[in-house]
Amino acid sequence: MRILFFGDIFGKPGRMILLTHLRDIVASTKADFVIANAENLADGKGLTEKTLKPLFAAGVDAVTGGNHLWDREESHDFICREPRIVKPLNYPKSAPGHEVYTIRKNGFELDVISICGQIFMPPCNSPFEAFEGFLTTRIESRPLFLDMHAESSSEKRAMGWFVDGKATLMAGTHTHIQTADEEILPGGTAYITDVGMTGSHDSVIGVRKEIILEKLTTSVPRRFETSDLGLMVNAIIVEANPDSGQAVSIERLRYKVEV
Ligand SMILES: [Fe+2]
Ligand SMILES: [Fe+2]
């Protein structure tokens, strides 16, 4: 079975990339499952029903969140109602949303979970304890997808070793910058520190670069605006054995597109 995962989809340009190109990308990668990180879907800040539904209609099977998942207060109800949105496992139980979603497709099954890092991130519980807790309460064992949403590459690397042999794949997100360290770990887990962002790359992680440069050079806060220049797909395609849950290959996708 083949799993296609897009890193943080940033704003309207990121959404347009998927709406315009997803069908072709699925055909060329022969993907069975399509997952995307959607914490920046609505102008970089959270997601809304209006911004997410077209992606589901276009063929996305499930989305993961992150620290920005709840930025839109008006969407909390939707996040509770929509099981295909997966919130980080190590946030309080009272935070709106579901912790795991099982995709059943093409005769295969895949559990989708997400965990946030603690280093240089908003407060959350231990990602390691949360993963262990998830495994102990799991009733059925099936192939497992983990989005490790974290700033620190060391924390993501450590989590990779922690879940090796237990998850089919661990894909890092949140930095919006793709890393070139994809590999299959010894226990059979496909790993990458960060998948990167699907959106504008002639920007500073999705925001118009002039705004961030002015903010950083003057130390005066500025209102962020989504950039639409230099659009790129940043994703991975992973092949896995559906019976053992072990990964066979991982390949990075990173290329320019127009919408
Ligand atoms: Fe993000
Ligand atoms: Fe994030």
Order of helices and strands: EHEHEHEEEHEHEEEEHEE
Q: Averaging pLDDT over every residue, what do you get?
A: 98
Give the low-confidence spans.
none
Q: Could you tell me which ligands this complex binds, including any ions or cofactors?
A: fe (ii) ion
Per the CATH scheme, the topology name is: Purple Acid Phosphatase, chain A, domain 2
- Rg, rounded, reads 17 Å
Instruction: Name the shape in a single word.
Output: globular
Work out the number of β strands. 13
Number of self-contained structural domains? 1
Assigned CATH class: Alpha Beta
What oligomeric state best describes the polypeptide chains here? single chain
Number of helices: 6
CATH architectural type:
4-Layer Sandwich
Provide a descriptive summary of the structure in words.
The protein is α/β, with parallel strands linked by helices and 259 residues long. The protein has one domain (2-256): Purple Acid Phosphatase, chain A, domain 2 (4-Layer Sandwich), CATH 3.60.21.10. Helices cover 26% and strands 26% of the residues. The chain is built from six helices and 13 strands. The chain has helices at residues 11-29, 49-58, 76-81, 127-137, 153-163, 209-218; strands at 2-6, 33-37, 62-64, 85-86, 101-105, 108-116, 144-149, 169-173, 183-184, 190-192, 199-200, 231-240, 247-256. Strands 1, 2, 3, 4, 11, 12 and 13 form a seven-stranded mixed sheet that branches. A six-stranded mixed sheet has the order 5-6-7-8-10-9, covered by helices on one side. Helix 3 (76-81) links the parallel strand 3 (62-64) and strand 4 (85-86). Helix 1 (11-29) packs parallel to helix 2. The structure holds fe (ii) ion (2 copies). One fe (ii) ion binds next to loops.
